[in-house]
Amino acid sequence: MKAGFIGTGSMGSILIEAFIHSGAFNPEQIIAGNRTIHKVEMLAERYPGLQVARSNREVVQESDLIFLCVKPSEFKKVIDEIKEDVLPSQFVVSITSPVLIKHLEGLLPAKISKVIPSITNYVLSGATLCIHGNRMQPEDKEWLENLFAHISSPISVSENYTRISSDLSSCGPAFLANFLQSFIDAAVEATGISNEEATMLASEMTLGTGKLLTTGGFNPISLQKRVSVPGGITEEGLRILEEELAGVFSRVILATHSKYEEDLEKAEHRFTLKQ
Q1: What is the helix (H) or strand (E) element at residue 178, kind and residue range?
Q2: Percent of the chain with pLDDT over 70
Q3: Contact in structure between 65 and 4 (CB atoms under 8 Å)
Q4: What confidence category does residue 274 fall into, taking pLDDT thresholds of 50, 70 and 90?
């Protein structure tokens, strides 16, 4: 099995490194290409044996499993470039949420899936969202999700819920990091604790909280109840958060969905333009 990557930007390189670190693939099993070839050459230096492709077509011709890790605006151009080389026996996995399965199946004969990764996959954790096309048989779906199980918890979702699922699993780390940084900054300003110490404490707290919510038997509501005591300090802090954050995440979701709808319309336009 040889895996090819078209695009080695932020998420493409994260997937490559996670697969190598997890043992899912050896570097020799990977071929990668990118518009800026230097980025791939740097990966090849870091992981000897990884093959540098000089074109997108070379990636397709050398691979059994092809990952499309490009921006929505570049997607149609890449598809047009490789479509004559893609075979029905190959697997094509897109990590670009606004490009729909129907767009890919309409132009490529391969078995198609869309998998939305997360930065948490870099440390072999977090979720990957799996959306499978009509040509994917049950054994194909199982095989692909077993592959992603090396670096994540694969979760099958409906394409209709791609955006909200991505908000939680893929955008969520940035949203949570933003919340933590605000907490850290306030702690430093109010008390004089060093930024380094506050960051370490907040980071360790986040790690422990994640374990409580995944393997510790808690959910977000039960965890709050367990930590807070009526009339206590935590309860007072939660009261302030509930007052100040009321409606914030509803507005976040409205904003991300609005941007997603815009991206969907642009992708639809690119894929429906007459050649």
Answers
A1: helix 172-191
A2: 99
A3: yes
A4: low
